[in-house]
């Protein structure tokens, strides 16, 4: 799997390329790459007659879920979320811990009213 396979990851990759001097962004880029690189590319057509297709789809979903949590942690720590989730900018490490500790429903509830704004310049 690569960044271009998932629209949100592709946007982040473009942001990372233009912000290669930002340590948080580049650390997140490396972490996401480590998550998605070993995962097979999602199939364009699902064939449920083979168990490997289901295993690959499950691995792709898990990689997207993990990378989504990293994206949100990075976006919050670099002030790329609108409106802000909190009244302050958390440090990157705390942000990662927070988003990784949320269960799926909590993640959806926290992020529902917010959006990541990679296209705007980071203020950190």
Please write out the topology.
Elements: H1 7-18, H2 23-36, H3 51-77, E1 81-82, H4 92-101, H5 104-111, E2 115-116
Antiparallel strand pairs: 1-2
Helix pairs in contact: 2-3, 3-4
3D architecture notes:
The longest helix is centred in the middle third of the chain and has 27 residues, at 51-77. The protein has helices at 7-18, 23-36, 51-77, 92-101, 104-111, and strands at 81-82, 115-116. The two termini are 30 Å apart. Helix content is 57%, strand content 3%. It contains five helices and two strands. It has a two-stranded antiparallel sheet with strand order 1-2. The protein is mainly alpha-helical and 124 residues long.
How many strand elements?
A: 2
Helix-strand category? mainly alpha
The share of residues in helices is 55-70%
In which order are the strands of the major sheet placed? 1-2
Low-pLDDT ranges: none
First-to-last CA distance: 30 Å
Query: Average pLDDT value?
Result: 89
Order of helices and strands: HHHEHHE
Question: Largest sheet, described in full?
Answer: 2 strands, antiparallel
User: Helical region count?
Assistant: 5
Taken from the alpha-carbon principal axes, the silhouette is globular
Q: What does the radius of gyration come to?
A: 15 Å
Strand content bin: under 5%
